[in-house]
Structures
1.
Amino acid sequence: MKQTKQLTAIIEREGDGYVSLCPELDIASQGSTIEEARDNLVEALELFFETAAAAEIQERLHTEVFVTRLEVSVG
């Protein structure tokens, strides 16, 4: 039976497409739409979990990730 894991996806526009990032594992992907970038990130993450050794997963996995917005002075 397969397990599931909740991870964070940050998706931002880059040029004509989108880049998706999972900060817990520092794995990224891209796509021409938000949905494609998300789906490609899911595929990249699943492939990582299928092929990575348990020690590599443990070493790379950040269990606490905080996403927030900041206000900074410019100019």
2.
Amino acid sequence: MIVEVFKTNVAEVELSELLIRQLEDQFPESHINFDMEDCDKILRVEASIIAPEKIIKILNSNGYSCEVLT
């Protein structure tokens, strides 16, 4: 499994749950969660194949910033 971590500006739990559902629709075999306690509002994606550009595009299309955390 590959793990990719993203920095976002998603601040509300309800919105994070909506985004997780959208991401799971695109990546059904993945495990996705947000760490809302972290100052970077971390999005963590664990899967056998990860397409960071698609994840970023989904969050951007919903009005949120998202970048790979290095």
3.
Amino acid sequence: MTAHEHASAGLDAWQVAAAIIGALAVALYLGAARRLRRRGDAWSWRRTASFTAGGLSLVAAATLEPPGEPFTAHMAQHLVAGMAAPLLMALGRPLTLALRALRPGAPRRGLLAVAHSPPVSWLVFPPTAAVLDLGGLWLLYRTPLLAAAQERPWLHAAVHVHVVAAGFLLAFSVCQLDPLRRRWSLPWRAATLLAAGAAHAVLAKTLYATPPPGTGFAVPDLRTGAQLMYYGGDLVELGLAAVLAVQWYAVTGRTHARTLRRARLLQEPVTPPFGSR
């Protein structure tokens, strides 16, 4: 039974888990935002809308059968759950919201300790996140792993969990909108995004020409799925690039403003104290 046929027969374990996690994350986020508003604190509705859209996208990708042939449907699922949903949820700044909603105490200190722990810091190091994400995709599509996953439900679930988790790591590590232990510079993150985008595009081109080993996808289905991967990936990567561009503009804008203020201070004449000659 192929993955597509299995999905038609009922939801896999990973789909149920992803749907529950997505719905629970949205519920917790909306509850935390409501708590802030009740306390009189402001929280951007744009962040709320973005996170909610990302969480619901994850639920939809897990529970709804995408249109198209098997490989095209699989790729649509990958793009939504592993790329688009993580970006939208990262833009919502969930860690920032959680830290603001929690009162000072053990839960808040525990959450901050986990977020600033060395393992998490290494996982959100941009090159590490990119290797986990893109390396996993190359392993999935350029080895017999996808064919094996089609025949083994547990492996199929593990593959999808990895794709979603690695997609979240990459989005959060590139955007770095939440308070992390170390904020990597814009050049580091931009270079990582550029390399990850190139690796994703090259992988899509190889799939257009050669199917994953051991699979029997029809050529039109394979090429449509590869094109979806190529152009859909570009759209999400442009979204990540836009986040970096806004951050760069903010940093250079502040630097420029400080430079102008210093220049004005140097140009202003010094007024002698009152009564001095």
